[in-house]
What does this fold into?
Amino acid sequence: MYPQVEPYAQGMLDVGDGQRIHWEASGNPSGKPACVFHGGPGSGSSPRWREDFDPDHWNLVLWDQRGAGRSTPSAADPATDMKHNTTQHLIDDAEKLREHLGIDRWLLIGGSWGSTLILAYAIQHPDRVSEIIIPAVTTSRPEEHAWITRGLGLFYPDYFDAFVEGVPEEDRDGNLALAYNKLLESPDPATREKAAWDWSKWDLSTITGGDNDFTGTRYENPETRYRLARTVSHYWGNEAFLEPDHIFDNLHRLKGIPGVLIHGRNDFGGPLRTAWEVAKRWPDAELVILNDAGHVVTEGNSMDRAITAAVEKFR
It folds into this structure.
């Protein structure tokens, strides 16, 4: 809807633990602040978000979470220790970035994993959040991880059998994300490469609704495959480092924060039920259900149009 303007400022913020996160700000430096929490985890920020925000009105902040995008050290490097990469670390990083930029309150926007991180941040820092927009709602409960790593086998039995066969036989009945993460942390490069390939084949199919062809996608790049597989399995294997119902038990802390939840009825990877339950516990949020949408936002689709409308609502 708007031109993809170049950032007026960017930098690397030292957040401790040997970690430096990349950030950028675009639009109007004196405008209304908004911040994108990207998905993945591990995918990195996308400049596409600039097209949803009027650069004359908004001060838009994008940042790469630990290990992702241009932040350092990269999770694509097997030598990078992931012990300092947890949900609480990311919440703290976002708050340090807000303080660094001198922002009092900001609108938060992001979907999928970005949804979990936004909600966890807002629960901890509700006084720093003006509004929230979430396309593709997730809360990273254990049952959500179990659904996406095992339950979806109901719809994709062929892909699921290949996914399960990618881990040792003794691990096939347990936490598949954790089993893959062990392989992705292997000292053997061939083991890591195969695990990243097998994980990504399953991951892509769940996102697209069954298409797991890497051609023309970010999964074509072996380094990207490994970074994503390693980071996602690290978080899912550890249940996002959250208590099982942490977000649901604390949604009352969002009282007074207006929100728009946007969810596709055909989102296989993140069934509508989660968005429905969040909306019931957060009265200040509007739930927009899209009958023709899944998990992915593409240019001009109904999810994209709903995001644009939500941003305009909160001008």
Q: What stands out?
A: The first helix runs from residue 87 to 101.
